[in-house]
Amino acid sequence: MVMHVRLEQTGNSQVMQLANTDPQAPGPGEVWLEQAAIGVNPLDVNQRKGDVPIALPSGLGLEGAGTVAAIGPGVTTVQVGDRVGYATGPLGGYASARLFPAERLVKLPASLSFEDAAAVLFKGITAQYLLKSTYPVGPGTRVLIYGAAGALGQLLVPWAKHLGAFVIGVVSKPQSLARARDAGCDEVLVFDADTLAAQVLEVTQGLKVDVVYDSVGRVSLQASLDSLRPRGVLVSYGATSGAPEPLAMSTLNAKGSLFVTRPSLAAHTASTQEYQQRAQDVLAAVTAGIIQPRIWQRYALADVASAHDDLQQGRSQGAIILTP
């Protein structure tokens, strides 16, 4: 039997239901994947809560790793027995086994465990496109990164440092300062919407930053805008405090001809070629020691509600994975 999580309605963590089904034969272009580890991400929580709408009923989860158990007609990119991972839809990652499009599977190096793959692919691809496409970070770039001590921040910070950036990290509480410094931040600030921009001005000796990576959303919007140099870029890619309020175009002009973007993983992995290129860059960065998977907690699939509660309440200090 196959255990999987099913979502009939949105709400708190208790709306996730465990169900059992029979294994399925893969169709054209598909594989049957037996999963060893499953990644848990903030997007999963937002979909479960209803903040990011999905068609219901639905599975949940966009990241996993395991072994190809069977292939469907026309599959040539993978073989039975291959160790693989993935970091995009279709939804349904919260399962002990599942069908998955063969072309969206990423072959894993022997040196990378299933658990580490499930902890790093989704977040790693996010860090990759943010640092290399949304705003190309390079030597001397001044960067402000929210959530510097979190699972994604622990990938963004060292990768930005490797690219030559001066990194100012932002954390939500003093207890996270040391973890952000250990990730490689040059400076770390505890978030206060009223004082953050002034602190950034002081740290940069009046220059402000070139780019802000803001995963907080509503409560941080103005502080982020005020931390940018003229023609700087606000990358608003998360909403842990809620979606940002609508922004008047005149505000961008008044604050120095600023740019604002709201990127998504889906838009940066829409084609198989682009998706595979970004995934291979992540795997290469792991192999080179530029970034490291950092697993904070492992939960059995049956304890998925506890995993969501820890992530939603800000208790996690790194990646969370589920094990079937």
TrEMBL record:
Pfam families: ADH_N, ADH_zinc_N. CDD domains: QOR2. Residues 11-322 form the Enoyl reductase (ER) domain. GO terms for molecular function: mRNA 3'-UTR AU-rich region binding; NADPH binding; quinone reductase (NADPH) activity. It catalyses: 2 a quinone + NADPH + H(+) = 2 a 1,4-benzosemiquinone + NADP(+). Its EC number is 1.6.5.5. The keyword Membrane does not apply. InterPro entries: ADH-like_C (IPR013149), ADH-like_N (IPR013154), ER (IPR020843), GroES-like_sf (IPR011032), NAD(P)-bd_dom_sf (IPR036291), QOR-like (IPR047618). Keywords: NADP, Oxidoreductase. It is an enzyme of class 1 (oxidoreductase). GO terms for cellular component: cytosol. The keyword Flavoprotein does not apply. Belongs to the zinc-containing alcohol dehydrogenase family. Quinone oxidoreductase subfamily. This is NADPH:quinone reductase.
